[in-house]
Specification:
The chain is α/β, with parallel strands linked by helices and 236 residues long. 37% of the residues lie in helices and 19% in strands.
Length: 236
């Protein structure tokens, strides 16, 4: 009935739902899709849902104790984990409340197998967006993907120009791989920018300066003569 999702990569999900029938159906689908699943019958489990323990929360705030809404709002103040709220089909005001309290998306509760397609797409979208916004670490450096700031040792922090940010992202996503200038140009060039290979050399120079990477003996962004550049990130 369900097919595994090759893009899930074993993401950790917390499912909180007071309805046993809904929990059973969702457990079957989410497990086959490839998620690592923790299941709870009420929202008390949200008290532990922070600190990177889960990649996404799937919940019905209307638990038997009546504290689900409060816990949802409190969680959002201390965590940016994606939250998908599942509510009754006619719960219009509850949907508005869930979004106001910090849910990233709201869907009607699935009642049968054919209702699960939209749920699956929403989960994939939320997880993909969360992954794109997550800070990237290499050695003692951190790239904040939301503010586009490069942070390093001794409190160092600097803003990156759009092309510098795209170049560093390209390197971080392809470590230890030789990238030619034309390939890098295609990855970092903005709309309307001239396709000049020397622009890549200038960007490399500026990025090396911000990374304190000595251009005479670079350790992070290495020049591979006749081929291009190779990013060699340090161990954490």
């Amino acid at each position: 009935m369900f097919q595994p999702d090759p893009d899930v990569l074993q993401a950790r999900l917390l499912l909180c739902d007071p309805d046993a029938t809904t929990r059973s159906m969702l457990c079957e689908a989410l497990t086959v899709w490839g998620y690592q699943l923790t299941v709870a019958g009420d929202t008390a489990a949200l008290e532990e849902a922070h600190g990177g323990r889960y990649e996404l929360l799937l919940l019905d705030p209307q638990d038997a104790q009546g504290r689900g809404w409060q816990r949802l709002g409190a969680l959002r103040t201390r965590s940016r984990v994606p939250i998908l709220a599942l509510l009754g089909e006619n719960a219009v005001l509850d949907r508005v409340l869930a979004l106001e309290l910090g849910a990233d998306a709201v869907l009607p509760k699935p009642r049968q197998a054919q209702d699960l397609h939209e749920l699956r797409l929403r989960l994939q979208g939320l997880l993909r967006r969360s992954l794109e916004e997550r800070p990237l670490y290499f050695g003692r450096w951190r790239l904040d993907t939301q503010t586009r700031r490069l942070c390093g040792p001794n409190g160092f922090s600097t803003a990156l120009a759009p092309a510098e940010y795209r170049l560093l992202r390209a390197f971080l996503e392809r470590p230890h791989s030789v990238l030619c200038r034309q390939e890098l140009l295609g990855l970092v060039r903005g709309p309307g920018a001239p396709a000049l290979e020397r622009n890549i050399d200038l960007l490399i120079s500026r990025l090396r300066q911000k990374l304190a990477d000595d251009a005479r003996e670079p350790r992070l962004i290495r020049t591979v003569r006749g081929l291009g550049y190779l990013f060699d990130p340090p161990e954490a």
